[in-house]
Amino acid sequence: MQEWNWKRIAKHVGVVLLIFSVLVTTLVGGIVIANVDNVGRLVHVVQLIRHDYLEKVTTDQLVEGATKGIVDVLGDPYSTYMNAKENQELFQVLEGKFGGVGIVLSLKDPKKLVVLRPIKNSPAGKAGILPGDVIVKIDEAETVGMEQDKAVSLMRGNPGTKVTLGVYRESTKKSSTVNLMRENISVPTVEGQALPGRPDIAYINISQFASDTGTELKETLNTMDIKKFKGLILDMRYNHGGELNAAVQVASYFIPEGPVVYIVDKQGNVDTKMATGTYLGMPVVVLVNEESASAAEIVAGAIKDKGTASLVGVKTFGKGIVQTIFPLDSGTSVKLTTAKYLTPNKVDIHKKGIEPDVKVELGKGQTATISPTDTNFDPQLQKALQTLQGQLK
After folding, report:
1. Per-residue pLDDT reduced to its tens digit, 225-269
2. What are the structural domains of the chain?
3. How large is the angle between the packed helices 244-251 and 295-306, nearest 10 degrees?
4. Chain centroid to CA 209
5. How far is CA 269 from CA 79, 320, 338, in A?
6. Which of 205, 292, 373, 393 has the highest count of CB atoms within 10 angstroms of its CB?
7. CB within 8 A of 328, min separation 6: which ones?
8. φ, ψ for residue 36 (rounded to 5)?
9. Catalytic site residue from 106, 294, 310, 333
10. Could you tell me the pLDDT band of residue 7, with boundaries at 50, 70 and 90?
């Protein structure tokens, strides 16, 4: 039997103990003793694993597991520990460029991996994967109960590598296997055009808020020569959010100077994000739905509070909290919820969402006509046009 002593234990768990040092050193009296006991429990478990567990386990694995466990125990779906691969993938997404198959998953049902939409010209799109399809298997991994972050990580990878998806199509009650080759996915986050049939109405869709979204919007508005249009429809349906500063830049085109959003941290400190003075000052209608979340809600909330546009659709998702990414060693990081945001009228929309000014639901089986190519508009887009026309009279 291998001999163990405290010096050897300390060598293997010293890094793990550092995770707990703040808890121990910032508290006093009996609470300190309680936390020392808890650290002792951790040391005991590590000793048992290193001494008695059948398989070989490295110190790096134990540190990784301990770090992940500390974050997981928070019970916050938006706070997570990311290993080097996951951390790299997150920043690729924020930049709008990554290797993968081009699937955006729905937020609506966290218990299933439901396809919100395939990205245009992506491997998934070209293979015929449709909105509403359920991803039931990724290579050999069953997806029942799988977190979306984990599923996304499995589907992403180096361009030129293969991944096999098990797909269930609820509309036909049929299952299929789809073999895909990963490609470089570059996601334009802003698309602009004249609304089909209405050359005097501009239509702009923002699909997410990446680091370049503000720049993309500026370039789109310039390319379209936005001043020649009488009004604008901004479509943020199915926009899950993204980068905070991008949201502030976008909102600045749709509200006059003043606060866009208040960021309130744990200590009550307030960071006010101000509009940048690029207000268009034209009639606008904004489309939102139950999957418009986070940064999209920052923009929608600012517009609603300022009264510069009408919101059409259904109540938004209700994610009014902000995450900060803290770099760790070896390319890893931890993403933690560090603040909540309030709209310009200091409304907390977390778990509440934003109610539209004009409520319009899609009928069963109806899909949203995002970036439409003809005049066969869905009911929400039709109502947005009617509402905008009312403003133009």
Report:
1. 999 999 999 999 999 999 999 999 999 999 999 999 999 999 999
2. 6-73 (no CATH), 97-186 (2.30.42.10), 190-392 (3.90.226.10)
3. 30
4. 9
5. 21, 16, 11
6. 292
7. 67, 334
8. -60, -40
9. 294
10. very low
Burial of 182 per CB tally in 10 Å (0-12, 13-18, 19+) = buried
Catalytic residue (choose from 133, 212, 235, 305): 305
User: For this structure, is 335 an active site residue?
Assistant: no
189's CB contacts (< 8 A; 6+ apart) are 96, 206, 207, 208, 209, 210, 212, 213, 216
Three-state secondary structure along 7-49?
HHHHHHHHHHHHHHHHHHHCCCHHHHHHHHHHHHHHHHHHHHH
How far, CA to CA in Å, does 52 sit from each of 4, 7, 58? 11, 18, 14
Give yes or no: 305 in active site.
yes
pLDDT tens across 167-197, in order? 999 889 999 999 999 998 877 899 999 999 9
Give yes or no for a contact between 230 and 361, defined as CB atoms under 8 angstroms apart: no
Question: Which residues contact residue 215 at a Cβ distance below 8 angstroms, ignoring those fewer than 6 apart?
Answer: none
- Tell me phi and psi for residue 271, to 5 degrees: -110, 115
Angle formed at CA 293 by CA 215 and CA 324, multiple of 5 degrees: 70
- The amino acid present at 260, given as its one-letter code, is V
Whole-angstrom distance, CA of residue 99 vs CA of residue 97? 7
**Element counts in the chain: helices (H) and strands (E):** 10, 19
Query: Is 294 among the residues known to form the active site?
Result: yes
Structure tokens at 4: 């163990």
Q: Residue 103 is inside which H or E element, if any?
A: strand 103-105
CB 318 within 8 A of CB 350: yes
CA dist 158 and 391 (Å) reads 49
Q: Using the structure block, give the residue that is written with the tokens 């940048």.
A: 276
Which pLDDT tens digit goes with each residue over 321-357?
A: 999 989 988 889 999 999 999 999 999 999 999 999 9
Question: Does residue 71 contact residue 334 with C-beta atoms inside 8 Å?
Answer: yes
